[in-house]
Amino acid sequence: MLSSIKSKLIVLVLYTFSVVFTSLGFFMYYELEDIVITSIDSHLHNEVQMIAGLLRAEESDIEHELSEVAVGEYAVPLSGHYYQIVSPDKRIIASSPSLSVVGASLSIIKGSSEPSYMTIIGPERNPLRLMTQSFIVSNKTYTIQAADSLEDSYKILSSFKKIILIVFPSIFIIFVIGILVITGLSLKPLDYFSRKVGQITEMNLNERIDEQGIDMELQPLAASFNTMLGRLEESFLRQSQFMADASHDLKTPASVIKSYCDVTLGRDRTESEYKEALGKISEMVDRISNIISRILEISRLESKTFSLNIVGIDLMDIMKDVLKLLEPSASASGIKINLSGQRVNISGDRERLTEAFINIADNAIKYNKKDGSVDIVVGDKNGEALVTVMDTGIGIPEKGREKIFDRFHRIDESRSVVAGSGLGLSIVRAIIKAHGGRIEVESEIGKWSRFIIFLPSKKNRSVTSFL
User: Fold this and answer.
1) Kind and range of the H or E element at 348?
2) Distance CA 334, CA 162 (A)
3) Distance (Å, rounded) from C-alpha 296 to C-alpha 302?
4) What are the distances in angstroms from CA 198 to CA 1, 83, 224, 234, 369?
5) Structural domains in the chain?
6) Which of 86, 329, 375, 397 to pair with 459, CA 20 to 30 A apart?
7) Would residue 54 be called left, alpha or beta, if left means φ above 0 and alpha means ψ between -120 and 50 degrees?
8) Tell me: the pLDDT tens digits for 339-357?
9) Does pLDDT of 404 surpass 60?
10) In this structure, are residues 70 and 81 in contact, taking their beta carbons and an 8 Å threshold?
11) Spatial contact of 52 and 135, defined as CB atoms under 8 Å apart
12) What is the mean pLDDT of the chain?
């Protein structure tokens, strides 16, 4: 029942209404009761004070004099208005005609100099409000009691209670209807928002929610949803591009294999021709295998469960290993590699970092100019380890620098220069990011490119072992 915002809102409002109005009803009832009782107590107090005055003035003939003044409501038998005077020996020496003519009396309560009030049952079994107070007259203590019926007061309170029990539920019902209408109107924009969102699929991710056409409270939600749609659209486009690029890169060697097989099987060949064809096919299979391996490598690196084998390492030692591994290919291309800098200790996965720096340096060799150079500098700056790899190659256009780390992305100018899968720098970025580092690119078209890798130094390392 409480699975929707509307039902929760209605229950919350109705609960609040019930608590507030129930509390208000009790408060009003008891406040009215207090006012009524206080009014009766005030009236009784005045009557007792009047009788006490007569008692002091007529000390010689108390019974006769008090009987003479008892008129009006006190003279009507069982009228609900009574008084009586009790002597020190607990005898009733005077009482109102409303009591004496029918031989009734009030309950004798021990009095004191301070007035006391209580509710009792009267002669006709009706509730009475009784006041008792003692006075000293001629060195004797007389107790005066006066009482008024509470029947009319209780009728007023009963009528008020009935009004509350009728009016409040009626208001409650009207309130429920109003809440249903108001919540329906208030949540209507959410229904529109929900329908609009439901219309968006992978086929129309370019659509957006109109932020200006909805209520102000929903505008931040619409803005967040539009941002999410933008990211999803970008992700879908990247996935589509990934599939297209992967298909393209895999299709070329597959086509070569198919062509060599068709041509070779077209007629009988010599042993050397078969060996040549099989060698070419093996080369293409290696290329396909390399692309697949790199795709799997990126998937593992980007998964949240991938862990690094963190050990203490020296970046200069890693770069020396990189230099030894790449010197043959650099020499074959006429590229000179220079390594300089200082020893910098970091914590990291030696194998993964070696792979990352090999990819960067290998690209610097591949996309370099004839008789060019690659300068590698190791150092530290502001508590971070720093590795700079600079080449004298073809450069990277400014608009393509942010995308060179995307999978299968290759700069158009580079496609004709050297073959590649476009996955190397994606692997580099994933490895560097896993170590809590970052990579920056600077370049000038036709002149040079510089890759700057920042890694936390050993004493400042604060990254986890997971991507």
Assistant:
1) strand 345-348
2) 106
3) 10
4) 23, 83, 16, 19, 54
5) 5-156 (3.30.450.20), 216-302 (1.10.287.130), 311-460 (3.30.565.10)
6) 375
7) alpha
8) 999 999 999 989 889 989 9
9) yes
10) no
11) yes
12) 79
Report which of 244, 299, 240 is spatially closest to residue 427, judged by C-alpha positions: 299
What's the pTM value of the predicted model, to 2 decimals?
A: 0.47
CB 59 within 8 A of CB 138: yes
Mean per-residue pLDDT, 55-66: 59
**Which DSSP symbol is given to 466?**
B
Three-state DSSP state, 439: strand
**Phi/psi of residue 375, nearest 5 degrees:** -110, 125
Confidence label for 303 from pLDDT (cuts 50, 70 and 90): low
Cα maximum dimension of the chain: 160
Instruction: Tell me how long the chain is.
Output: 467
Tokens representing 311 are 């050990």
Torsion of CA 35, 37, 39, 44, to 10 degrees: -170
Whether 314 has a pLDDT exceeding 60, the answer reads yes
Residue 155's identity, in one-letter code, is: K
Query: Contact at 8 Å (CB) between 437 and 429?
Result: no
| Bridge pairing between strands 345-348 and 384-391 | unpaired
Single-letter amino acid code for the residue at 360: I
Statement: residue 432 has pLDDT above 70:
yes
